[in-house]
Design brief:
Residues 97-111 and 117-126 have low confidence and may be disordered. This protein is mainly α. The relative contact order is 0.10. The chain is elongated and about 60 Å long. It has nine helices and no strands.
Length: 201
């Protein structure tokens, strides 16, 4: 006789252990917990809702296929984000994406959602002119980020949009800490260089 477990209160590690035993309910619980954050991360990389949904699905298929490889000493979210990033980066390598919106997700329904998915370019606006210049700068940053190598783009988005530490980015992308710092340094350098004409103007 199988007892129906309430999985919603179990820690991630216990749910994963059940998923590793082939318990479908445990796998569904993992999706319930992490589908939105994984989708959010993938969406910021590819900026296309349908595509992000497909890639999120691909991510969870990979998670299911490799659930036995998960090691509990790592945070589950970092392991999932690493797989999601690899799926997104593989896709971006195959097809360069045109732009990354700085104004937040076009599908964000509320002000909070727009703020949560936007890339903060400038802090407090002092005047309408400043705001107009910030928008112009936002468009330029958007295009500059879109031209970065996928690896640089992933690091910049995780650092400046997701607000993750260098250590978390290293774990998520499965890169040495020094490499993450180098990528972010190079990405910032490329962004500065791309935005110089605007500053001089």
């Amino acid at each position: 006789m199988t007892r129906i477990l309430d999985l919603s209160n179990l820690p991630d590690a216990d749910v994963v252990a059940l998923a590793q035993q082939g318990r479908e309910a445990a796998y569904r619980e993992l999706i319930r917990r992490y589908e939105r954050p994984v989708f959010s991360l993938v969406y910021r990389m590819v900026r296309d809702r349908e595509l992000a949904e497909d890639l999120t699905q691909d991510t969870f298929i990979k998670v299911l296929n490799h659930i036995d490889r998960y090691r509990p000493e790592f945070k589950l979210s970092s392991w999932l984000f690493k797989i999601a990033n690899n799926v997104a980066i593989d896709h971006l390598r195959r097809r360069q994406v045109d732009t990354i919106s700085m104004d937040g997700s076009p599908h964000a329904a509320t002000t909070d959602a727009i703020e949560a998915t936007s890339f903060d370019v400038v802090g407090e606006q002092e005047s309408a002119l400043d705001e107009m210049e910030a928008r112009e700068l936002g468009g330029a940053i958007e295009q500059a980020i879109a031209r970065l190598r996928p690896e640089y783009r992933a690091c910049i988005l995780l650092r400046h949009v997701e607000g993750r530490s260098y250590e978390e980015i290293a774990t998520t992308l499965d890169l040495p800490l020094g490499t993450v710092k180098t990528y972010i340094h190079r990405a910032r350098h490329e962004l500065r260089r791309a935005l110089e004409p605007l500053r001089d103007g």
